[in-house]
């Protein structure tokens, strides 16, 4: 015999078996069990405060909910066919444990405000975990940048050699990017901290519960101000999925760089065996599978974001069952992101930098901009200096030599401003050291970046020892 559903009072026929399967979300939202129990305990307290529950009933409900949580914790909770979702499962089991008082817990409450509160509570702790993983990745990058600060390499635009930079400056470019991602997640926490519980199905709660007290019990200070907006709001889900997509994109771009840099053609880095795999056919191969998986999974996370935005676009106001799709998108994106952030940290931490290959890749044509800066320092307007530097490059190409092999007389034919001191340009150390302004690739600027990131990590109780 089919067990009675919480909403089945006005129905006289059984639910279609296909709808039954699609409607059932317990396999996904069971991971909200702790949050559902804690939110139910907070709500029970609010009912007790307005005498909707006696002290005895309140005590039984709290003790029963603790028992429900213990069963989930120990994997002894038995899911039944009638358990559509985590809310019905927990309420059904609570009634089995304590009897009639369990039927009062849902007074004035709806699964509409339950589920969004559970999701926000789950996401608060999950975002904290994700932020912690990002902090570890940033720490690894800062540590390597500090140790390998003097290694120079080509910087690229359009994937063409552009200007000499420090390897440390390159690494920190991603450290700052991931810090920005961390900041975005921190900003999202403000919205996650607004509690919807007490909004009912859409019209609000007809009983004088203290919603602010519920919020404080759940570790927050404020509540939603409009019940219709509250139960239909999934903007925080969309924002999380966007943040997750951006982190995935940033990880993918880093992975793409390192895959290129680890090829024989570049040879700037070697990926550790622990983060590589081999070929089933070609014995000599060592493939950067860790980075390729990061790159691929980053794309799938972006797909979850696009898919859920399409769901939101098609829903009218307040709660609609379409919104049940948020859980699959959030849980899947979070799980994937946690794995690839951790995998990226391990890959970056264990890779070997090949300084000789980095510096051998530097070429004098990358100093063409420095030629223009040389002329600017001689009083030539930059736009004119840029044109003259271009003529220097053209002259070197006509003579089939590198620009640093042009003779002074050749340079003077291009501009009388060239003098014997031009030879100072052909020094990669001098080149990187001229970028002293904040954000530049000089040693001073890079050390300032490291100091600032170390201080930021220290605020999050992450110590960088080297």
Automatic annotation (TrEMBL):
* A Pfam family annotated for this UniProt entry: ASL_C2
A cellular-component GO term for this protein: cytosol
All copies of the Fumarate lyase N-terminal domain together span: 9-303
One annotated GO biological process: L-arginine biosynthetic process via ornithine
Membrane-crossing ranges are none
Q: Name one GO molecular function term.
A: argininosuccinate lyase activity
Domain Argininosuccinate lyase C-terminal per the UniProt entry, residue ranges: 366-433
Please report which protein family the annotation says this sequence is part of: Belongs to the lyase 1 family. Argininosuccinate lyase subfamily.
Xref: HAMAP family: Arg_succ_lyase
Q: What is this protein called?
A: Argininosuccinate lyase
């Amino acid at each position: 015999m089919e067990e009675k559903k919480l909403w089945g009072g006005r129905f006289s026929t059984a639910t279609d078996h296909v709808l039954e399967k699609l409607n059932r979300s317990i396999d996904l939202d069971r991971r909200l069990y702790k949050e559902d129990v804690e939110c139910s305990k907070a709500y029970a307290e609010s009912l007790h405060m307005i005498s909707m529950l006696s002290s005895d009933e309140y005590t039984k409900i709290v003790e029963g909910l603790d028992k429900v949580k213990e069963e989930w914790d120990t994997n002894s909770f038995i899911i039944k066919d009638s358990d559509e979702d985590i809310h019905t499962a927990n309420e059904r089991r609570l009634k089995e444990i304590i009897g009639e008082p369990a039927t009062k817990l849902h007074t004035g409450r709806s699964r509409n405000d339950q589920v969004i509160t559970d999701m926000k509570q789950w996401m608060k702790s999950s975002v904290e975990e994700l932020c912690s993983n990002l902090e570890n990745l940033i720490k690894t990058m800062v540590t390597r940048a500090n140790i390998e600060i003097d290694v120079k390499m080509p910087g690229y635009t359009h994937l063409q050699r552009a200007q000499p930079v420090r390897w440390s400056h390159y690494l920190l470019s991603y450290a700052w990017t991931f810090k920005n991602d961390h900041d975005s997640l921190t900003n999202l926490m403000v919205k996650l901290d607004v509690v919807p519980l007490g909004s009912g199905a859409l019209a609000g709660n007809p009983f004088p519960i203290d919603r602010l007290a519920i919020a404080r019990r759940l570790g927050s200070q404020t509540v939603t101000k409009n019940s219709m907006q509250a139960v239909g709001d999934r903007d925080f889900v969309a924002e999380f999925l966007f943040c997750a997509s951006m982190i995935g994109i940033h990880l993918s771009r880093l992975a793409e760089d390192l895959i290129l840099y680890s090829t024989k053609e570049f040879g700037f880095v070697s990926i550790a065996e622990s983060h590589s795999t081999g070929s089933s056919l070609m014995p000599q191969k060592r493939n950067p599978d860790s980075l390729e998986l990061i790159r691929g999974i980053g794309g799938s996370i972006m797909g979850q974001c696009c898919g859920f935005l399409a769901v939101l676009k098609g829903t009218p106001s307040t709660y609609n069952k379409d919104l049940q799709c948020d859980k699959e998108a959030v849980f899947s994106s979070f799980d994937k992101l946690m794995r690839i952030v951790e995998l990226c940290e391990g890959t970056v931490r264990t890779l070997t930098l090949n300084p000789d290959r980095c510096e051998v890749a530097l070429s004098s044509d990358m100093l063409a901009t420095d030629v223009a800066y040389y002329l600017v320092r001689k009083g030539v307007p930059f736009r004119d200096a840029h044109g003259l530097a271009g003529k220097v490059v053209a002259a070197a190409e006509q003579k089939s030599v590198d620009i640093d092999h042009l003779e002074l007389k050749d340079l003077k034919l291009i501009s009388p401003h060239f003098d014997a001191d031009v030879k100072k340009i052909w020094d990669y150390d001098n080149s990187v050291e001229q970028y002293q302004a904040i954000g530049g690739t000089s040693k001073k600027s890079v050390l300032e970046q490291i100091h600032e990131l170390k201080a930021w990590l220290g605020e999050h109780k992450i110590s960088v020892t080297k």
